[in-house]
Amino acid sequence: NAGVTQTPKFRVLKTGQSMTLLCAQDMNHEYMYWYRQDPGMGLRLIHYSVGEGTTAKGEVPDGYNVSRLKKQNFLLGLESAAPSQTSVYFCASKWRGQTMNTEAFFGQGTRLTVV
Amino acid sequence: AQSVTQPDIHITVSEGASLELRCNYSYGATPYLFWYVQSPGQGLQLLLKYFSGDTLVQGIKGFEAEFKRSQSSFNLRKPSVHWSDAAEYFCALYTGGGNKLTFGTGTQLKVEL
After folding, report:
1. CA of A89: how far to CAs of A45, A58, B76, in Å?
2. A102 with B99: Cβ contact below 8 A
3. What distance in Å separates the CA atoms of residue B66 and residue B45, rounded to the nearest whole number?
4. Interface contact A44-B94, CB threshold 8 A
5. Inter-chain contact B9–A99, Cβ cutoff 8 Å?
6. Within its chain, how far is the Cα of A74 from the centroid?
7. What is the pLDDT of residues A29-88, one digit of tens each?
8. How far is A108 from chain B (nearest CA, A)?
9. Planar angle of CA A115, A44, A15, nearest 5 degrees
10. pLDDT value, residue B91
């Protein structure tokens, strides 16, 4: 029962470096999401995907790219990290649809610091 | 535009006291509403959800929430708070295609012993 697994859990980057955050889910969910959490701002959607091979922009997509080559994985990339991208990143997944049993499940988060 | 507002940034209650956390939403269609809890350094745990039907929803850990369409509110309540309830609480709403979650800014709950 792994659920939603995020890798890595912690990372420190220097400004300008690149990295990829991996989200893996074993629930066969169609939809996947990347959020960032900053103090006093709640969680804001970066990008999301409604199926393998599809991605879409969320509320704060600038500076990030994503890919969903396999249904179970959703990758978040930072091509050139900036201090403003210091945040806690959460991945989530859910079944398609809006019925009582289709709530989103969240990973444990990745704490990223850009120095 | 859709939005979720949690008016209280911080709330402090004594252990054993009752709790109410406020949540107001703005959405043009039928709202699907959630309350999540986040303990320090942890991920988000779903407390309860409202999709339709009974407007009083029961959740885990003794929490409940009442959906009031006329007030665009979905307030979270607990009759007697335990010290372990200290955490940050987020109200959220499904919005648009892809069932994206729009979150409020959160309410930090402190419990005094």
Report:
1. 10, 14, 26
2. yes
3. 19
4. no
5. no
6. 7
7. 999 999 999 998 999 999 999 999 999 999 999 999 999 999 999 999 999 999 999 999
8. 4
9. 15
10. 97
